[in-house]
Design brief:
Largest interface: A-B, 23 and 25 residues
Number of helices of chain A: 0
Radius of gyration of chain A: 14 Å
Strand content of chain B: over 45%
Largest sheet of chain B: 7 strands, mixed
Number of strands of chain B: 11
Distance between the termini of chain A: 41 Å
Structural class of chain B: mainly beta
Structural class of chain A: mainly beta
Number of strands of chain A: 12
Low-confidence stretches of chain B: none
Low-confidence stretches of chain A: none
Helix content of chain A: under 10%
Shape of chain B: globular
Order of helices and strands of chain B: EEEEEEEEEEE
Number of helices of chain B: 0
Helix content of chain B: under 10%
Strand content of chain A: over 45%
Order of helices and strands of chain A: EEEEEEEEEEEE
Mean pLDDT of chain A: 92
Distance between the termini of chain B: 37 Å
Mean pLDDT of chain B: 93
Oligomer: heterodimer
Shape of chain A: globular
């Protein structure tokens, strides 16, 4: 069965610090998709990134970057020069294409607090 | 484009009652998925509808059901409410079928069962 682990329950950093959120996943499928979503205090989940299992290139989008490593089944998310507006709960998620969405699993989330 | 909208935003029901939640997807999106979020269980997938057909279903009892209309709007129904059904119910729309594409979430309906 698929599983997503986010070992860090809560992280607190001071503004301008870099922070990495860890995500480790388990799947037996060869084709799968990984996602990161942000849930700010308002409650609405915001899509950040989607990555398929065949694309191991790291991605950078502004202050955000993602490191996908199949060898360690990890898909970590780094925020550079964090800002107070980055405070939110961040979820990593996994979808197995071969199960066609029947197994879409979110991790438990990491609550990030960025202090001014 | 307008985002995903959900109504009502808050709801209080009594055990044993039933409830219907509504979701309007982003214009042009034909896939609508529903999720339950609780402090204990986190975010759990309920089901997905595409072109008025349920495509996928999570591990929830039959008390949880849904439907999708020809305009892609979706409703979710929970019958015989239990205290454990208290949760934030999130709806998400996607331009394509299946949960392998990015989803856009609504603000949720917070259901409290007393």
């Amino acid at each position: 069965a698929q599983k997503v682990t986010q070992a860090q329950t809560e992280i607190s950093v001071v503004e301008k610090e870099d922070v990495t959120l860890d995500c480790v996943y388990e799947t037996r499928d060869t084709t799968y998709y990984l996602f990161w979503y942000k849930q700010p205090p308002s409650g609405e989940l915001v899509f950040l990134i989607r990555r398929n299992s065949f694309d191991e290139q790291n991605e950078i989008s502004g202050r955000y970057s993602w490191n996908f490593q199949k060898s360690t089944s990890s898909f970590n998310f780094t925020i550079t020069a964090s800002q107070v507006v980055d405070s939110a709960v961040y979820f990593c998620a996994l979808s197995e294409a071969e199960n066609y969405g029947q197994n879409f699993v979110f991790g438990p989330g990491t609550r990030l607090s960025v202090l001014p | 484009k307008a985002g995903v909208t959900q109504t009502p935003r808050y709801l209080i029901k009594t055990r044993g009652q039933q409830v219907t939640l509504s979701c309007s997807p982003i214009s042009g999106h034909r896939s609508v998925s529903w999720y339950q979020q609780t402090p204990g269980q986190g975010l759990q997938f309920l089901f997905e509808y595409f072109s008025e057909t349920q495509r996928n279903k999570g591990n929830f009892p039959g008390r949880f059901s849904g439907r999708q209309f020809s305009n892609s709007r979706s409703e979710m129904n929970v019958s015989t409410l239990e205290l454990g059904d208290s949760a934030l119910y999130l709806c998400a729309s996607s331009p394509r079928e299946g949960n392998t594409y990015e989803q856009y979430f609504g603000p949720g309906t917070r259901l409290t069962v007393t």
